[in-house]
Amino acid sequence: MSDPIDRTGLKPRFWDNKPLDRMTQYEWEALCDGCGKCCLNKLEDADTGDVYFTSIACRLLDDATCRCANYATRKSIVPECVVLTSATLDEISYWMPRSCAYRRLNEGRGLADWHPLVSGDPNSVHTAGQSMKGRTQGEFDIPQEDWEDYIIDEDI
């Protein structure tokens, strides 16, 4: 008898039994909770290495959906876009929010209860207040020298 598969074609709780570097592209993409926090512009303290999230979003973030408006070609449009893969995760996870599914799984913490794969509700990230939906400013609307004024608590 084969393992059950839900209506998305994904095995239930696949993330509990499959290492990140063995996931299919479909499984990898399904881990994204759609919070939009990874698409926020961040400031890094040159002395301490501390990373501060701002509410200023990448020009490609759709504030209404918390998804990239040009995901497939984002790197050519925004060369500084960080492309997260299982191979780069250890190196750049400090740049991801603590709530990020990829970071959580890489750190052995499992997915949060509000994650859509756990809750079964694609909007649970928003209803739990874990997304940036409707809470960002455009990066071209705020002068870069003022970005410090837009630092937020990444755990919002």
Q: Catalogue the unreliable spans.
A: none
Distance between the termini: 43 Å
Please trace the helix and strand order, writing H or E for each element. Answer: HHEEEEHHHHHEE
Average of pLDDT: 92
The assigned structural class equals alpha+beta
For the record, the count of structural domains works out to 1
Instruction: Give me the Rg, rounded.
Output: 16 Å
* Helix content bin: 10-25%
Number of strands: 6
Beta-strand residue percentage: 5-15%
**Helix run count:** 7
Q: What best-fitting shape do the alpha-carbon axes yield?
A: globular
Q: Largest sheet at a glance? A: 4 strands, mixed
Detailed description of the structure:
There is one protein chain. The mean pLDDT is 92. The protein has 7 helices and 6 strands. Strands 1, 2, 5 and 6 form a 4-stranded mixed sheet that branches. It is globular. The protein has one domain (25-152). The chain has helices at residues 14-17, 25-30, 74-77, 89-92, 101-106, 116-119, 124-127; strands spanning 40-44, 51-57, 61-62, 67-68, 137-138, 151-152. The protein is of the alpha+beta class and 156 residues long.
Short note summarizing the structure:
With 156 residues, the chain is an alpha+beta fold. It is 21% helix and 13% strand. Strand 3 and strand 4 form a beta hairpin.
